[in-house]
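Per your request, structure below.
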């Protein structure tokens, strides 16, 4: 990180991280997502303004996002599990395939062009946003597919999540609702998916970025611990609040607002690509 920032710039960056942390926590509890849709673009901008090289800023944002999802996903999953809406059998089926997908994505991260992360983020976020905004009964079938297809879907969720820097909730939520699960069941189980993804994902990005030039002084591989220290307190304060909202408020308006947010984030990365 550079030493020449003026106090106003530093205060603005810290404020952005604190606000982002609060929003990450609410989304983690409310939608069963890790909050990567917020943390990745915010972290990316903070690193870019900190003069981190652009070819490092995006994977650093992704890896740091995965690291912050570790505690938020644990808190969120426990809150939903206490209400009995987490499908533990499905999580056991997904455990190994998700791990394989996450480790594959982390390995790709060491050699991939930064544009790959942005393209994957835009594709998945836009698909999910359209589903949220259009509404309706988006279903492929009323039951889950066979064990082999379910396992393969877990590997794909792990791979895409590792490349996007998310806890997998946005993707697993889409998969589960397309296969007959209620939104509440999908949200709760997706919180558990975040636990499966975030721990190996964060460790994988630390290994993938080990020794890379251009990293800030506080980073271990592609994880910035100073960013985590600023963001995490507000994240943990708001995660339980988000989980409580998920079980008490109508989700139609909130779902559409989140869809709009995903479109805005996607637009930001489309601009960056060109």
């Amino acid at each position: 990180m550079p030493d020449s920032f003026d106090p106003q710039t530093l205060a603005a960056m810290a404020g952005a991280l604190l606000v982002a942390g609060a929003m990450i926590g609410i989304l983690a509890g409310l939608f069963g997502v890790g909050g990567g849709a917020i943390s990745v673009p915010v972290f990316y901008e903070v690193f870019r303004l900190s003069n981190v090289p652009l070819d490092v800023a995006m994977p650093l944002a992704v890896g740091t996002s995965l690291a912050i999802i570790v505690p938020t996903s644990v808190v969120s999953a426990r809150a939903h599990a206490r209400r009995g809406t987490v499908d533990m059998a499905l999580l056991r089926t997904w455990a190994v395939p998700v791990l394989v997908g996450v480790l594959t994505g982390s390995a790709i991260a060491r050699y991939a062009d930064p544009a790959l992360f942005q393209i994957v983020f835009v594709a998945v976020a836009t698909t999910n946003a359209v589903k949220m905004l259009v509404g309706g009964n988006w279903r492929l079938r009323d039951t889950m597919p066979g064990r082999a297809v379910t396992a393969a879907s877990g590997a794909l969720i792990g791979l895409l999540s590792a490349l996007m820097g998310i806890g997998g909730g946005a993707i697993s939520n889409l998969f589960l609702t397309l296969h007959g699960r209620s939104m509440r069941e999908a949200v709760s189980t997706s919180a558990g998916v975040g636990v499966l993804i975030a721990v190996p994902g964060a460790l994988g990005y630390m290994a993938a970025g080990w020794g890379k030039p251009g990293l800030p002084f506080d980073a271990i591989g592609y994880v910035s611990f100073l960013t985590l220290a600023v963001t995490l307190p507000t994240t943990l304060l708001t995660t339980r609040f988000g989980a409580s909202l998920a079980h008490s408020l109508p989700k139609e308006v909130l779902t559409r607002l989140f869809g709009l947010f995903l479109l805005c984030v996607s637009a930001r990365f489309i601009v960056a690509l060109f």
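DSSP finds ten helices and two strands in the chain.

Regards,
D.
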